[in-house]
Amino acid sequence: MLPMVDSQPVRARIALFLVFEATATGREAAMTINAQEFNQLAKTVFAPIYPVIARQILETTGIQGGCCLDVGCGAGDLGFAVLQQADLAVGFVDASAEMVALVQHTIDAHELQQRCQAVCSDVSQLEVAANSVDLIVSRGSVFFWDQPQQVFKHLFQALKPGGWMYIGGGFGNRQLLDQVIADFKARGEEERFRARIQRNLGTASRQQLDTILKKSGIRDYFIRHDESIGLWAVIHKDT
Q1: Max Cα–Cα distance, the chain, nearest Å
Q2: pLDDT of 125-175, one tens digit each?
Q3: Are 130 and 155 in contact (CB under 8 A)?
Q4: Rounded Cα distance, 75 and 94, in Å
Q5: How far is C-alpha 125 from the chain's CA centre?
Q6: What are phi and psi of 162, to 5 degrees?
Q7: Phi, psi of 45 (to 5 degrees)
Q8: 10-236 has which fold?
Q9: Residue 213 — left, alpha, or beta (φ > 0 → left; ψ -120 to 50 → alpha)?
Q10: Strand pairing of 221-226 and 230-236?
Q11: Which of 99, 93, 183 minimizes the C-alpha distance to 138?
Q12: DSSP letters along 127-144, please?
């Protein structure tokens, strides 16, 4: 059950609906993902990691209210975890109509329409008002962006002065990572899963992410990177 935050200010609730200036493209994701299988993993194997990552995001950024976007959101598990821990309105963005339908189902099931909005769009095509978003989060999607430099610049423009981005991938902590690896081992998929971790979260990816951010013109950022926490770009927009 997703708890409501009773103190949510009206202006924060409606702020989300002022962010999207135009109808999103609705273009399907370039990568092939079985939405139902993805959702099943998110709700079982990966379920414990989202509240931990959400807490790390909020503790690192200090954001507790306003408007948040979860881009490349999949079934929305990170965004909903953030929603449970902060006084935020959350917009969920994914290029897959099936994923967006899963998010909308959760929104409707928990009567979160006043705090949430789901939009089907490629993140690079999403029309977002400049200086309108307090927090942008994403877990796992950055590794599939066709033009990450342009996407970072696009999202940075959407941040309010004083806003933050927290984008990358990981599992929260060492204990949770070990638990996830054990689950994939039981499925007979440990080797492939470890290879994916190395490909997405290894040293080469960290160097690539650093290069992308520098080329995007973003200056105020740091990268969190270790085996336990994963690989995250933490970006701040000066006031």
Answers
A1: 49
A2: 888 899 999 999 999 999 999 999 999 999 999 999 999 999 999 999 999
A3: no
A4: 9
A5: 16
A6: 90, -5
A7: -60, -45
A8: Rossmann fold (3.40.50)
A9: alpha
A10: antiparallel
A11: 93
A12: -B-TT-EEEEEEES-GGG
Among 50, 28, 47, which residue's Cα sits nearest to residue 39? 47
pLDDT digits (tens, 9 = 90+) for 8-66: 443 444 455 455 543 444 443 345 578 888 899 999 999 999 999 999 999 999 999 99
Q: Which of 185, 229, 234 is nearest to 49 (CA)?
A: 229
Sign of dihedral through CA atoms 59, 61, 65, 68?
negative
* CA-based nearest residue to 142, from 114, 116, 101, 170: 170
Region for residue 233 given its phi and psi (left: phi exceeds 0; alpha: psi -120 to 50; beta: otherwise) = beta
Sorted by where each begins, the domain ranges of the chain are 10-236
Joined together, the tokens standing for residue 29 give 């994701």
Which tokens sit at 236? 């701040």
41 CB-near residues (< 8 Å, 6+ apart): none
